[in-house]
Write a structure and sequence with these properties.
The complex is a heterodimer of chains A (about 350) and B (about 260). Chain A has about 350 residues and is α/β, with parallel strands linked by helices. Chain A contains 13 helices and 15 strands. Chain A is globular. Chain B has a single domain, classed as Thiamin diphosphate (ThDP)-binding fold, Pyr/PP domains (Rossmann fold). The chains are: A alpha/beta (about 350), B alpha/beta (about 260).
Chain lengths: ~350, ~260
């Protein structure tokens, strides 16, 4: 029987990780996501599933612990909020370069700088365009509910190991802190050493046995021709993700003449805006990207053949709107409405902006 | 009296020493005269003699030994600059039955990685840190290191390290010896046959203590950088004895209580 619980989004992430058979969590406290480490330390999974939980000395150390664990073929993850995620970028780039699986959760807060502890979506660029150095992409999942916080942990590990690439769960203080009913995933046992060797023995540092060559985890390739070959190999993975991993949700789009495009908590608010607008006779739908990378370019492009205009609603100065405009490629008007600094848009002002910026009048 | 010829001497039954099979048979990237090659050999001899090749995971740093994984026939992870102790922490905690070590230079361990070094030591992580201290950044071309001696010249202190301007060299080994998480802290060298043997013994103890969950073992090897110091190998070893050892004295700084 499925287990239902009322939980905070941050707690759902932590519980889902225990149930998903995660091997290690390494974190550092920062608001608004400290409940993740607190929940794990209270639950003591190291006494039940054997999952390692460690409060690291910094976000830098935490992501490098994930690197060390992932290099052994283990399911490892970390979480932080915006300023801490900036500190993790070096490790994230190294993980991408060394082709390591793992999950990084960013419970985004307003910024730049120390900013505010209130929710924001201002880290969209950092998450989707490569916050660290070099040619790489993260597979970015954007949950819009506590349920998706729980669901995206097992999904994130599946995708991370499928592509041997880090996955980011990009959420915000709203989803992290709010409580909702959540159906928890079934317990999956942690992989045994034998399973890890069977699955990842051709690359993971599990100890060199006489039956194989030594395994080396490194992103250092000094020879330019070889480095180019390596980067192009990474590029093929991103092409495959773009072909196979795009996820999105449509809400009342069948007869839509206008479209909201929003992700995460903002998409939840936009659902209400759709209802308000439709009650006034405005036929508007909502497209919610679930993967921010790979971006749902094709579905948005297809809708540009149907609707008269799109309003991209974000809690930032305008970031995802650039990807929507690339998808639409000038076919219809695309405008942005954003609140930032920790301010959350309300459903009425979203409709007002649809009318003033897109419909006219 | 029988005459012993060269042919007699090189007979297999007369061989008393050979290269360990765990050192990959290739040219090292280190400068001729540098201590890294000897330190690598001692490390791999210890791993071979303990029979722990399949149970050992190494972590390579950024610095001259960034390519250490090319030479060591074991599974190795290459870390970002200074982060090796964070990687090793996770490896050892996730695979407690393994022998885990980091191999780091002075810039990696005592400048950019100071935070990771001190906290791994303080938590008492059960792995070995091998710290090669040659008082200079070798790979990047001879810049000042956290362990560059007062008055010592480097490309970023071309008139010698002025402690008024550039601060003092950091005795991080003495520092980590004060932390409750370290079980064995020692400073060795590999510039004479006697010292090489002492270093090898120290490395073996380090692996044994940390595997026995006594805490973190920290083995500093004071070494030369004849290229960076702009000396011949022989001159650099003499200079090391006369200048490095008075500031970084050799010997055990901390041993487990039972000893």
């Amino acid at each position: 029987m499925k287990e239902l619980r009322l939980m905070k989004g941050n707690e759902a992430l932590a519980e889902a990780a225990i149930r998903a058979g995660a091997d290690g969590y390494f974190g550092y406290p920062i608001t608004p996501q400290s409940e993740i480490l607190e929940y794990l330390m209270a639950e003591k999974p190291y006494e039940t599933t054997g999952m390692v939980v460690l409060q690291a000395e910094s976000e830098v150390a935490a992501i490098n612990m994930v690197y060390g664990g992932a290099s052994c073929g283990k399911k490892c993850w970390t979480s932080s909020s915006s300023p801490g995620i900036s500190l993790k970028q070096e490790g994230i780039s190294y993980m991408a370069g060394s082709e390591l699986p793992g999950i990084i959760v960013n419970v985004v807060r307003g910024g730049p700088g120390l900013g505010t502890i209130q929710p924001s979506q201002a880290d969209y660029f950092q998450a989707t365009k490569g916050g660290g150095h070099g040619d790489y992409r993260l597979l970015v999942l954007a949950p819009a509910s506590v349920q998706e916080m729980a669901d995206f942990i097992p999904l994130g590990f599946d995708l991370a190991f499928k592509y041997r690439n880090p996955v980011m769960i990009l959420t915000d203080g709203v989803i992290g802190q709010m409580m909702e009913k959540v159906e928890l995933p079934e317990f999956t046992p942690r992989w045994t050493e034998e399973e890890i060797i069977k699955m990842s023995g051709d690359w993971a540092t599990t100890g060199k046995t006489p039956d194989r060559e030594r395994n080396i985890i490194s992103s250092l390739i000094l020879d330019s021709a070889k480095q180019e070959k390596h980067v192009k190999k990474l590029g093929l993975k991103y092409t495959a993700m773009e072909a196979d991993e795009v996820r999105y949700e449509k809400f009342q789009c069948d007869d839509a003449e206008y479209l909201f495009v929003a992700f995460g908590s903002t998409a939840r608010i936009c659902q209400k805006s759709v209802d308000i607008a439709r009650a006034r006779g405005i036929k508007v739908g909502l497209l919610r990207p679930i993967t921010l990378y790979p971006f749902p370019t094709i579905p948005i492009h297809e809708l540009s053949n149907q609707v008269k205009g799109m309003l991209v609603v974000e809690m930032n100065l305008g970031q995802m709107v650039e990807d929507v405009r690339l998808a639409v490629n000038g076919k219809v008007q695309v405008e942005h409405f954003g609140r930032c600094g920790g301010m959350i848009p309300n459903p009425d002002e979203i409709v007002k902006n649809l009318v003033s910026k897109i419909i006219g009048g | 009296m029988a005459v012993i010829t060269r042919e007699d001497i090189i007979k297999p039954e007369n061989l008393v020493y050979k290269r360990t099979s765990l050192l990959v048979d290739c040219a090292l990237s280190y400068c001729p005269g540098c201590g890294h090659g000897t330190a690598h050999r001692m490390l791999m001899e210890v791993i071979e003699e303990m029979g722990i090749q399949s149970k050992t995971i190494g972590v390579a740093p950024v610095g001259c030994s960034v390519l250490a994984y090319e030479f060591l026939d074991i599974d190795v992870q290459q870390a970002a600059h200074g982060r090796a102790p964070a990687l090793a922490t996770a490896i050892k905690r996730l695979m407690p039955e393994k022998y885990v070590f980091t191999y780091q230079g002075d810039g990696d361990l005592a400048a950019i990685g100071t935070c990771e070094t001190i906290h791994a030591c303080n938590r008492g992580e059960n792995f070995v840190i091998i710290f090669i201290n040659n008082g200079i950044y070798g790979m990047t071309g001879g810049q000042m290191a956290p362990t560059t001696l007062p008055g010592m010249k480097a490309s970023t202190c071309p008139y010698g390290r002025d402690t008024e301007i550039m601060g003092n060299p950091l005795k991080i080994t003495e520092l980590v010896a004060t932390l409750p998480g370290t079980c064995y802290v020692t400073r060795q060298s590999v510039h004479t046959p006697g010292n090489v043997r002492k270093t090898k013994r120290a490395l073996r103890k380090a692996f044994e203590y940390s595997y026995a969950k006594k805490g973190l073992s920290f083995v500093e090897i004071v070494s030369n950088c004849n290229s960076g110091w702009k000396m011949t190998p022989v001159q650099s070893n003499k200079w090391m004895e006369e200048n490095m050892f008075p500031f970084f004295p050799l010997g055990d700084i901390k041993v487990p209580a039972a000893e």
